[in-house]
Amino acid sequence: MNKENILKELNFKAIRSSGAGGQHVNKTSSKIELTFDLENSPSLSDNEKELLKTKLSSKLTKENNLILFCEESRSQHRNKDLAIKRFLELLRVNLIRPKKRRPTKPSKSSVRKNAEKKKRTSVKKALRKKPGLD
């Protein structure tokens, strides 16, 4: 994954933001919409694309575009920087391949210790009972 090449592929669009800000919010377009075309990205390998498609399936559109919005700040430039940071972090986290789980068995000594512990507990509880009238 080459960050510089991926950043060149990003498309940005400024939209009017909602929320607090008075008349200023009605006049300026400070909300940023970041779009990344996952399918046609030359910067990612086929394996990386498949991994991202599976992990980000809920965030992708039908055309495999990733869309992120940022409207935290009243500044368009700050929102753009925040959107880029989120996008790169999203890629970094989702490109990590999980380790395969190797099933393990308990050791012979731990099985023996558990059996002895159960035996001692059962004897202790048996001694608490009232003697039977046989």
TrEMBL record:
One of its GO terms (biological process) is rescue of stalled ribosome. GO terms for molecular function: peptidyl-tRNA hydrolase activity; ribosome binding; translation release factor activity. Coiled coil: none annotated. Residues 98-134 are annotated as: Disordered. InterPro entries: Pep_chain_release_fac_I, Pep_chain_release_fac_I_sf. Residues 16-32 form the Prokaryotic-type class I peptide chain release factors domain. Residues 115-134 have a biased composition (Basic residues). PROSITE patterns: RF_PROK_I. Belongs to the prokaryotic/mitochondrial release factor family. NCBIfam families: PRK09256.1. This is Peptide chain release factor 1. It comes from Polaribacter atrinae. The lineage of its organism: Bacteria, Pseudomonadati, Bacteroidota, Flavobacteriia, Flavobacteriales.
